Amino acid sequence: MSLTFGNVHFTQQPQRVVYVSGSLMKNLKLSGKKSVHLRLGGERVPATVKPINKAGKHLYLASGVRKGIKIPKAGGVYFRAQEGEVQIGPLIGVLSDGPTSSSTHPFGNRTGFIKQLLTIGSKQSYIFAFTPRDINWDSETINGFFLGENGRFSRKRVPLPDVVYNRLPSRRAETTHSINQLRERFIRRRIPFFNWSFFNKSDIYRLLEKDSSVNRFVPESINSPTSEQIKDLLERHSLIYYKPSSGSLGNGIYRLSHVSKNGYYARYRKGGRNALLRFNSFGSLMRTLQGRHGRTLRGYVAQQGIRLIEIDGCPIDFRFHMHKNGRNQWVVVGIGAKKAGKGSVTTHLKNGGSLLTPEQALGRAFGARADDVLRNAKAVAINLAEALESHHQHLLGEIGFDIGIDKDERVWMFEANAKPGRSIFKHPSLRAEGRASIEHILEHCLYLSKFRRREG
């Protein structure tokens, strides 16, 4: 296989002819060949090869070839030659959805992120966004959203892509028959599809608790706990979190604590505000929880609380944004330190939390030890990502870990997110990491689609 980067141009001739510069002919090992098959995504057409005398790596496609494989635009892209076929690409599809039919914001509040991906990605690939409704499985084509140089979307029909990056936003929609069928159809066509779906908290805890290489970093967690189990956890740890298995953004989370001689406390969000209830007995606490969430408390996880490092009396935890790079290795790309708002049950920014860099937070908490603590936390995050991937049956390329560090420098993993939010990258000191995150997504797409030289 040979892989090279060059430029695609269009000519108006109706025939199925491809004109190739001498340098590109040599790179693609086409010298002396009269014909070749050209491929984009899932589409393939034969074409006559005609060499041209032009410096650099250039491929001119006659309109018959261009229309036959639905090349969306001219410009710089990769060429991958193998066994009489030249594949142009990669063709990268970003799967998302939006509640609107807006031509300017077709993906709702994710449109800005998708525009960033398409802007950076279009310099080295054919990248487009699409919704489940845009796929025509009969013709194996997608009516995709491409981004023009003017920053506006235009629709172009292209073949099924070489790789799909899944950013479907709805946890509920992902469990429907139609979305399950969509994913299976891509897999049957051997089109890499990452990230498969949102994680379920209890599944992740169960996977990692059984792994001796990382289970010491996971707080004790009980899925669908009985009231006796909750009481036992509280007696042993004095602080626990009680949260929905499939929740996000801190919704539905309770921080339960037991203070000897003072009673039991439940801290939670209500109507956009932080609320605190006190109970004289464990029984009255449980009656309140069961009244709100059913007597069996199914679909909830009870988890050991950790006494985190604090700044100004407010707990701090960290979002580690992990990516696979172009060599298929896990790396830490961005870290945001989240400081809880006064009286808040979580550090979520929407619940009054604030964002710091990890250096700021750890410097306040550990002084001269801060660099060593951060280095250790990064190593733990990579170990956790590798362990999670080893137990997961589908392709992962991105994980957001919510990680805590206690006063003894121990690292704890509270949650793993398959489609992490990007709010940490709004911090002025983390904008470069936000761009690096997008570049890692694209690098991994190149790797999965085989448009990246594989080392080793």
Automatic annotation (TrEMBL):
InterPro entries: YheC/D. This is Endospore coat-associated protein YheD. The gene is yheD.
